[in-house]
Amino acid sequence: MPVITGRIPWSESLSSLRVHNFRLFTLSNIVAMSGTWMQRIAQDWLVLQLSGSVAAVGVTVAMQFTPMLLFGLYGGLIVDRYSKRMLLMMTQSIAGVLATLLAVLALTGTVQVWHVYAIAFVVGLVTVVDNPTRQVFVNELVGPRNLRNAISVNSSVFQLGGLIGPAIAGALLVAVGAGWAFAINAATCALTVATLGMLRTASLVRSAAVPRSKGQLRQGLAYALRKPTILWSVVMVAVLSVFALSMPVILAAYANDVFGVGAAGYGLFNTLVAAGAFTGAVLSTRRTRVRLRTVVAMGGLWGALQAVAGLMPGEGGFAVTLVALGVANLLFITAANSLVQMSSNLGIRGRVMSLYVLVLLGGQAIGGPLMGWIVERWGPHIGMIVSGAVPALTALVIGVVLARRHQLALSVRLDRRLPRVAIVPR
């Protein structure tokens, strides 16, 4: 398969957007991701206001991501067997109906915590199919040549939504409440369905459907386990998902209990993380080569910066660190996603990506309640430090294991009076 491997000029950083279908999908995705982020921020804050408990916010996160933990691998089977475009049209239609229901409950003043829990769980069931389908559908939109660039652009779009959505959600929460955030997300789901219907189906680079047979789940797992580039990337994603990706739970506590900045501040904190992540995603479009060492190093850096955020005493230093960890966050996510996809054969990619998404989202089902409990017992600062220190330590251990296995050593030398660090054979 031909892929872009050389250093590319800045003018080519968004080369995948020259593909008509991907350009159309991306434009609608910016709006859709903004709506998704709005709903998540509004949902978490609504639960905090209704219950007064950070742990309850953690339970909400768990309800939304537990289905992925339980059924994620089956989602991969569905993705490999059916049309990705039709699957996305179905999942987005259901998500729109659920957002509408939540909007009606919130706007009529009848919403209760258990309503949010139940809807979050059903949204999680939809995500079991929706998320891995999105991952694999990118290949059908652009083909193998532009796949790596398209993955980075897709991550940029997700974080651009994370930049816009929390800011709008914070304003809406202060001005009119959570209900309108849910209503807007319902409208963005309808836009996504309409856009999918407008794609030029003849231009899609379709992958052959995988026929039903026994042992397909085991086949996908065995394939991932015997490829180090997939196995260690997934391990790193799993640890960061459980600890570091529970950031919204911790930020809710910081906004409510540490700095006392309320809903607007909570939206701002999430926007700062997304601003850094958007920067990281744009930088990742320049990357032409991804190695396993890149994934491990970026995961360790992300964890270390998140631990540092827990040591920040004031809002200024805390805000700057949030932006920095956001950059590391997306440099890791795009590297891991690219490496796993590019290391997988097309016929099994749906199952491999469902495993990736399972640990990425399913880990938050464990991490949400866990970090909520840590925050309530020992405070937001300890929660933030733990959420970063554990992944940083994990990256260090994986790095040592890989270095010993491949006879590598760390080399540090001065280059124009600046230290130059490299990994070299012993």
Automatic annotation (TrEMBL):
Subcellular location field: Cell membrane
Keyword Transmembrane helix: yes
Keyword Membrane set for record: yes
GO molecular function: transmembrane transporter activity
Gene Ontology CC annotations of this record: plasma membrane
Transmembrane segments: 21-38, 50-74, 86-107, 113-130, 151-176, 182-209, 230-255, 261-283, 295-312, 318-340, 352-375, 381-403
Membrane topology: Multi-pass membrane protein
InterPro entries: MFS_dom (IPR020846), MFS_trans_sf (IPR036259), TM_effector (IPR010290)
Top-rank lineage group of the source organism: Bacteria
Assigned keywords, A-Z: Cell membrane, Membrane, Transmembrane, Transmembrane helix, Transport
Pfam families in UniProt: MFS_3 (PF05977)
Protein name: MFS transporter
Species annotation: Galbitalea soli
